[in-house]
Amino acid sequence: MDDAPRRRRISAIAPWVVTAAAAAVIGFVAIGLADSAEAPNDPMSGAVELALADRDSITTTLVSEASDASADAVIDQDGHGFVLGSDLPTLPDDQTYQLWGVVEDGQVISLGIFGPHPEIETFTVEGSVTALAITIEDYPGVISDGNPDGAFVGAF
Fold first, then answer.
1. Looking at residue 111, what is its pLDDT?
2. In this structure, is the dihedral angle defined by the CA atoms of residues 133, 137, 140 and 141, taken in order, positive or negative?
3. What strand order describes the sheet that includes 108-115?
4. Looking at beta carbons, which pairs linking 49-58 to residues 24 or more positions away fall under 8 Å?
């Protein structure tokens, strides 16, 4: 019996099998990449976790006497700060949250403007900060604290 027709059928089918197998592998790799894209490694969250885990960092919770809203803050040993403001109420578009720091000589300085709905916000300090405060200001913010009565305050 001649095996030539059988070999021709196998050789004609072989490229299709290889192509199908390659497509399946590519499909599995694509699915794996899609799954990892759905849970990205957020660098900002990672930086916050590192700062919180560092025993040389300082942390505080900023609370308001006017409401039960609050925000956590951490400053690492290099002066990189983070405010976790996702629990703060969303403001109208014409208002913004503004962060203030009390420095060594008691002076209050602006450390950042976070907009009407802060999430993880960053700021930088040079030197020592003894307290933080977040105020609600008219957009785009102010040079000196214009609303100390409604401040969210936290001390170190």
1. 93
2. negative
3. 108-115, 95-103, 129-138, 152-155, 58-64, 70-75, 80-84, 120-124
4. 50/76, 51/75, 51/76, 51/80, 51/82, 58/156
Judge whether residue 1 has pLDDT over 90.
no
Instruction: Kindly give, in sequence order, each residue whose CB lies less than 8 Å from that of residue 87, ignoring residues fewer than 6 positions away.
Output: 69, 70, 71
pLDDT at 5: 55
User: In the block, which residue shows the tokens 């000589």?
Assistant: 105
Q: Beta-carbon neighbour count of residue 48 at 10 Å? A: 20
Q: Do the beta carbons of residue 155 and residue 129 sit within 8 Å?
A: no
Give the pLDDT confidence of 81-111 residue by residue, as tens digits: 999 998 899 999 999 999 999 887 788 889 9
Model pLDDT for residues 120-143, shown as the tens digit of each residue = 999 999 888 888 988 888 898 888
Domain boundaries, the chain: 1-40, 43-155
Pair of tokens at residue 64 = 């308001």
